[in-house]
Amino acid sequence: MIEKMCRICPNDNNWTRPSKRKKGLEDPKSFLSKSGFGLEDWLNREKWILSGYSGLTGEWRYSRIEEMNAAQYDEEAQVRLLLYINDKEPGVIKPTAVGVLEEAFVIGAEEARWATDRFAEKGWLEIMRQEVKAIDGDSTKLTGNNPLNLVNIRFRPDGFAKTLV
Predict the structure, then answer these.
(1) What are the residue ranges of helices labelled H in 78-165?
(2) CA distance from start to end of the chain
(3) Is 96 exposed, middle or buried (0-12, 13-18, 19+ CB in 10 A)?
(4) How far apart are CA 34 and CA 38, in angstroms?
(5) What is the DSSP annotation of 102-125?
(6) Cα–Cα–Cα angle for 155, 158, 163, nearest 5°?
(7) Which of 10, 17, 72, 127 has a CA 20 to 30 Å removed from the CA of 35?
C-alpha cells in the first residue's frame, strides 16, 4: 500500500460542496485560484455513491485528489492518504491535517469515464456546476474530454475519516 500526504483545498462545508474562498491566500497559479473551487470540494458528499463498474463489488465514492496524478501510480494501486490543508493568513502558512482516506484506489481512464458518465446521468455534474457558480467560481473547469480531470480515485463510502479540525 502506498502512503502519501496530499494537500487538498480548504473547505468550510466539510468537503460536501464548494465554499467561498478568501482572495489572495492561494498560489495565483493554482487550479483553486484560477477556478475559484477545488475538485476535492465534493470529497465527502455522502450520498454520491456508485456501484456497478465491471469487476467491482460494493459501493464506492469517486473523487479527484489533485496531488494523486494517476500517471504517477499504477492503476488499482491501493493508497492511504493523509489529507491536509495549508491554513493561510497573510505571511503565515500552517499545514493542518484534516482527514484520512484509509483505503483508496487509483483509477484509470476507463473507470474514470464510467464514473463521470454516471455523475452526468445522475445530475451530479450539473449540481457541481451550479454550486461552483453559487460561489462565483468558473464552472467551465468542470468540462473536458479527460475524465481523469474530474475523478482519479475511488474509496468506500465510509472511507473518509472524520475531519480532524
Answers:
(1) 109-121, 124-134
(2) 26
(3) exposed
(4) 10
(5) EEEEE--HHHHHHHHHHHHHTTHH
(6) 100
(7) 72
Q: Cβ of 88: how many Cβ atoms within 10 Å?
A: 15
Cell of 54: 465491471
Per-residue pLDDT tens digits for 37-65? 999 999 999 999 999 999 999 999 999 99
2-7 vs 61-63, strand pairing mode: unpaired
| pLDDT tens digits along 111-153 | 999 999 999 999 999 999 999 999 999 999 898 778 988 999 9
Rounded to whole angstroms, how far apart are CA atoms 17 and 1? 29
